[in-house]
Amino acid sequence: MTVEKIQIDTLVVGAGQAGVAMSEHLSRLGVPHLVLERNRIAEAWRTGRWDSLVANGPAWHDRFPGLEFEGLDPDAFAPKDRVAAYFEAYARKFNAPIRTGVEVRRVERNLDRPGFTVETSEGVIEANQVVVATGPFQQPVIPPIAPEDTSLTQIHSAEYRNPGQLPEGAVLVVGAGSSGVQIADELQRAGRQVYLSVGAHDRPPRAYRNRDFCWWLGVLGEWDAESVQPGKEHVTIAVSGARGGHTVDFRRLAQQGITLVGLTQAFEHGVARFQANLADNLARGDENYLALLDAADAYIARNGLDLPEEPEARAMLPDPECVTRPILELDLAEAGITSIIWATGYSVDYSWLKVDAFNANGRPRHQRGVSAEPGVYFVGLPWLSRRGSAFIWGVWHDAKHIADHIAKQRAYLAYRDASQRRAEAAPQHDTAAPSASHLQQASLTGVR
Ligand SMILES: Cc1cc2nc3c(=O)[nH]c(=O)nc-3n(C[C@H](O)[C@H](O)[C@H](O)COP(=O)(O)OP(=O)(O)OC[C@H]3O[C@@H](n4cnc5c(N)ncnc54)[C@H](O)[C@@H]3O)c2cc1C
What we know:
Layout: E1 6-13, H1 17-28, E2 33-37, H2 43-47, H3 80-93, E3 98-100, E4 104-109, E5 116-120, E6 123-132, E7 139-140, E8 153-156, E9 170-174, H4 178-189, E10 194-197, E11 201-202, E12 207-208, E13 211-212, H5 213-219, E14 236-237, H6 250-256, E15 259-261, E16 264-268, E17 271-274, H7 278-303, H8 321-324, E18 329-331, E19 337-342, E20 346-347, E21 353-354, E22 366-367, E23 370-371, E24 376-378, H9 392-414, H10 418-425, H11 436-446
Parallel strand pairs: 1-2, 1-6, 2-3, 4-21, 6-24, 8-19, 9-10, 9-19, 10-15, 11-14
Antiparallel strand pairs: 4-5, 5-6, 7-20, 12-13, 16-17, 17-18, 22-23
């Protein structure tokens, strides 16, 4: 183990897509940097997701500008291992200075000199800037209403891998964002009886008039929306690239055999209670769906595009019985439910980051990733600068902005007044002060 203390200008923590994008932009601007990753490049895509997951966006869209998915139809949805391999190849492309298997354990501002002291599993690093690229989905969140019944198998969607992992019996999936919906669908297709608890959601059409919804959100400026619409803070987005990609339609899932229930409210003595809001949630999801079709039609008309009409996209299936006569209470044992999957989202853990960059709720205080603590940056968080920020293509653009900011600050600090310039022009006998390239070299050899 190396415990040598090394110096680096900019340290990036995490080598998921956010860390790789950061490294590319810092490299382009000539900023000496090092990326530390505690596991492997794009580990979340390798081992943090279920076996059958494919990207939610098509290959032409869910990628960085500088590289396409080799050997994959641009309209296909990349399997998760292909996504991981893509980021590994991308990092190789520009020889990103990434050290894997090194965990950052503590970052603290120096009190007597500029920069930060960084404790890692391999020793101590001094850095002028720290970019936090540790991901938006770090800690699975299971709400406190989860029953304490030990006879039930309860896992978070982050632990779900495949249907065979669950004991025999019916499954309650709580949460109908992209994860919950895809997992419920897979379980039902594997022969399980499935109950799916549906809260507020948006469910854009997979494609409309020969364009994927990723294209529509792009041309309509929705990926670039800078803040969540008021009232939409707790609305999840339900989309799927599974089986070649399809529109998430809850009524079709019900037709297929999944029993829909409203938002899960409580568990008492083996009985689950659901809010009476299923029909409302579906209606609001429909409104969002139809609003996108309207906006797409208007865009086509305004721009005179020749894209085929698709009136059938507006046809809605009739409400199934589980919507017209909603289940408000469900005895889990009577329903044969042996497992609950909590597809209820994630939180973040910055306990290792001992800096003044957080609000009272522990969320980063920042402007487009430039934090309230000078020298500390965040990248990859949802809505960091816009709707697309936590997604593959969006993070690349946010990383560019942050790298620019770092380069500008370095340029200010490189300024020398006349007396300093004269002193530096005088013959030097001591060459101890390391140049940027020395620091870069140190970083590459110091941590293994
Ligand atoms: C189920 C699911 C499906 C998704 N599908 C899509 C999709 O299809 N398209 C899309 O655009 N987005 C998708 N996303 C969203 C997002 O693109 C991914 O979650 C992506 O992995 C986020 O990338 P990231 O680099 O920000 O974080 P991560 O991929 O989580 O990378 C962070 C890295 O930091 C490392 N790390 C953390 N702490 C430390 C530390 N202290 N020291 C060193 N290393 C550390 C971790 O090991 C990890 O490798 C999906 C998300 C989920 C949950």
